[in-house]
């Protein structure tokens, strides 16, 4: 259970607060569908790692279901890998803040279609990656995302999401910035809390209409099933991303 002191969050910023000159990882996130449901902070707090507390906007936190295409994951400044580093992914995430006020996300599950990256992420970063059969398709203004979990389970956890992409958003709302402008990830690895910073250009966001959402990933991640339709549905063509070296909540880099 999270035991973080009451944090004083940093401001929500649409642009990354700092650059990462020497990245640990590079990748692009493409064709993203963001679905979000409101949640009670008290209910999600036990699901966060030590050192992190629920991040809230006007007293509410959120559960996110985000489907997209991972493109060309690469280490350091090396070119991204075209096959093993390129695959569909769907994650279930929560919103977090640590005692230094750094806002981030906590991944409850990450389904991906390449087994080798799944094994590497589980072993190297302690992330709850799952190997799944997945597909992302574009049909005109429709985006269709499907997944069916293979390993480690629970087998049968699945999702099918269809959205219709709408107009470009000129100025996102406070909530839309809160849900998408996340500049780090809180996680626990080898019993120690860590924070992995990231940076990318400002999100190009579009309105989106949810046409279909048949999923069991949220309950498989230990959360209550969504009560009703999502409060926010967004689409983005994507951004290139850099991840920096992980640090502990106190700001001390890990070995």
From TrEMBL:
Locate the transmembrane regions by residue number. Answer: none
What Pfam families does UniProt report for this protein, alphabetically?
A: DUF2071 (PF09844)
Superkingdom classification of source: Bacteria
Enumerate the SUPFAM superfamilies for this protein. Answer: Acetoacetate decarboxylase-like
- InterPro entries from the UniProt entry: ADC_dom_sf, DUF2071
Q: What is this protein called?
A: DUF2071 domain-containing protein
